[in-house]
Amino acid sequence: xxxxxxxxxxxxxxxxxxxxxxxxxxxxxxxxxxxxxxxxxxxxxxxxxxxxxxxxxxxxxxxxxxxxxxxxxxxxxxxxxxxxxxxxxxxxxxxxxxxxxxxxxxxxxxxxxxxxxxxxxxxxxxxxxxxxxxxxxxxxxxxxxxxxxxxxxxxxxxxxxxxxxxxxxxxxxxxxxxxxxxxxxxxxxxxxxxxxxxxxxxxxxxxxxxxxxxxxxxxxxxxxxxxxxxxxxxxxxxxxxxxxxxxxxxxxxxxxxxxxxxxxxxxxxxxxxxxxxxxxxxxxxxxxxxxxxxxxxxxxxxxxxxxxxxxxxxxxxxxxxxxxxxxxxxxxxxxxxxxxxxxxxxxxxxxxxxxxxxxxxxxxxxxxxxxxxxxxxxxxxxxxxxxxxxxxxxxxxxxxxxxxxxxxxxxxxxxxxxxxxxxxxxxxxxxxxxxxxxxxxxxxxxxxxxxxxxxxxxxxxxxxxxxxxxxxxxxxxxxxxxxxxxxxxxxxxxxxxxxxxxxxxxxxxxxxxxxxxxxxxxxxxxxxxxxxxxxxxxxxxxxxxxxxxxxxxxxxxxxxxxxxxxxxxxxxxxxxxxxxxxxxxxxxxxxxxxxxxxxxxxxxxxxxxxxxxxxxxxxxxxxxxxxxxxxxxxxxxxxxxxxxxxxxxxxxxxxxxxxxxxxxxxxxxxxxxxxxxxxxxxxxxxxxxxxxxxxxxxxxxxxxxxxxxxxxxxxxxxxxxxxxxxxxxxxxxxxxxxxxxxxxxxxxxxxxxxxxxxxxxxxxxxxxxxxxxxxxxxxxxxxxxxxxxxxxxxxxxxxxxxxxxxxxxxxxxxxxxxxxxxxxxxxxxxxxxxxxxxxxxxxxxxxxxxxxxxxxxxxxxxxxxxxxxxxxxxxxxxxxxxxxxxxxxxxxxxxxxxxxxxxxxxxxxxxxxxxxxxxxxxxxxxxxxxxxxxxxxxxxxxxxxxxxxxxxxx
Length: 954
Known about the structure:
Elements: E1 4-5, E2 16-17, H1 24-30, H2 33-37, H3 42-49, H4 52-77, H5 85-92, H6 97-112, H7 114-130, H8 139-154, H9 158-189, H10 196-203, H11 210-224, H12 240-265, H13 277-289, H14 293-325, H15 343-355, H16 362-386, H17 396-417, H18 419-441, H19 449-457, H20 462-465, H21 468-492, H22 498-522, H23 524-548, E3 552-556, E4 562-565, H24 568-573, H25 577-580, E5 602-607, E6 610-619, E7 630-636, H26 638-648, H27 650-726, H28 732-741, H29 743-774, E8 783-785, H30 787-797, H31 799-802, E9 812-816, E10 823-825, H32 827-856, E11 863-871, E12 875-882, H33 889-893, H34 912-923, E13 927-932, E14 938-945
């Protein structure tokens, strides 16, 4: 599992989030470290206090149990926080950031001595077993070696160390439980000097002064309070909830381990060395373990020491890592490699651990480092009390009590050991903070995250690309070293010292096993990890390729069952990827056999859920003969098939397109002419009004003179008749001229001609008046007008469109006029509204008539109904209705949108009704509605107020 980049403190994007790679059992094993590590402190405690050590540890066990349960509660709220208790304390004390950093680093100081302390224990164990042989023990070399070996494994990743830790914890906890249970059972059945009561009477009779109690309680907290280490790995756990549940088990195991161990170690012995755990454990276990006591104690100490060191190496870097993420210390400590190795934090932890060797013996190291640890726990209880109102805090008032108790123990106990060591212990977290400040400011490459990130992301050098030579050298060294050590043991160790030889063999085997794991971590495991990473990279690239390929890619098993599919399969097959897995491919494709082995390499099939779609299937050869997997590529070739069919008719299609193009060109030319004509319509009203005025003057002149001409003609005709009566006998010339001009016909036809001219002139006057009424577009002011005049003017202009023609019947206009008062309006604009609506009605009726004639071969009765009504003496309504085809709801909803038209290209601009809506609604404060359904005609309702408000139109 790869780590994920995160943004750490100071916007650091070079750190990584720890992977949740640890199993529940691996995290549980870390929770038993302090239980098993009790053997390092208990011998000295019991040697000094005897049975009083049981009473001394009782309150510590109670506080430790409550501490475990409280940490468990915090872990449930902060599941993504690594490091456990010290980082919880820093978060509780976030309002006191300086104190929070000090507390967390105090906890770090307390644990950083663990590898050195247990290296000293192992060294003492080897030293005791080498003394009978007279062999000098290389103490410093062994201490440094045992300290370093766990760090070697840690640099290969937490998972390797966790697995090794899990194997170590089983024999360690079994040995410790056997020691406690067998020892208590033996004490309960023994008489005399080894009984329960005798232990209390002989070693518990002396009273313990408060200073001594505080002094040894100070030491005991180093183990009793640190049983909550499981919480350090909540952020690494695959199941944080189950990991935290182990804290309950660890709590109830504490009385048996801490009190039971003390009871057994309180037996009278001749051992006076408080720092030698081996001699103390050996002395008290011989009565119930007999001759196996030495071997079992050696096994317990060896495995427990390596276990505790491994736990510390895992816990300490996580404390620094979380502090860095929270912005308390330098960002460099938040850098994690791709394998989850906290390299900068590990290096710093290693340096701090080795420096603890400077303090010398076991007791002084514990006193100095435990000062910071106990100060951390004390401040942790203070933080709980300060945050007592928060839901994650339990027993706040008890925490205040524990804070007071621990503050007293810290001061009295620490000073009782040594005021110099006490002061050093208090200053160590501050020294680390000073060092951290220097790291932040010094521009040295290893002090900054980018340097570590570059190393983590760099490719392996040529030396490490091939590990075969390195592994051969390591195997040769191990073989030669093992042979040399075996020869040395066989030649220098006296066979009479069987027990000591066996003890050394146990230590040697455990150490060699640990070293072997360390060597494997630096040789074979990187190879395995590289192979795994390469496989993951290849899988990711393959999946990425599948996701980006537009074609459908399916992986099938030998039976044709889909085992993997890319996202394109969802679009093609119409089923989400998760539902495709486990189904047969022939469920989706037609004409396909069940077994892929019988399929052609390339074939065409139709989709069962969409038969008109054709796909091309390409089947690859089997890439894995064992699994018999097939990769099938599906490509939708429906468009290609359609293109092939289209090409077969390309000649006819091109000819048809050429014809249509020619026709379209003509239509475009007509449309261009119409658009030009439409542009002229804005000034047409003024032109018509001017022309009408100019025509009206001579027409009026002619019409007026026709009356006089008629009178003059009558007078002349009467004069002619009078001449005929008075002079009946005219000359021959006159009679001939009368005959030529047909005087009788002239006398009859001249009055008729003058009357026809009078009727024609009157008609011209009416037409001119209509044009003037319709073309009032130049009037800027509202005037009271007769709406009916505007309607009649419009109908007169449309008369040619309404009358019967060769292939069209007459459109009948039914008028239902109400008696209307004069309406204040822009007469010319309203006439434009009437014109657009009536013209659209005429177009719709003509289209309906043509379709009707084509369908039924008979003429269609077209009717336009115009109805006017006076409503409540406040406004008038004009309804213009036709019996045309009507319109759909979608068309009706968009009817008044600009540039929307249902007419063919070139037949309409789509602006007519939009302008009508603007004139009626915006300029006249009225309403314009369309009432229409398919097949039921169309009706436009125009509603206009009789009196206009001043604001309207301006």
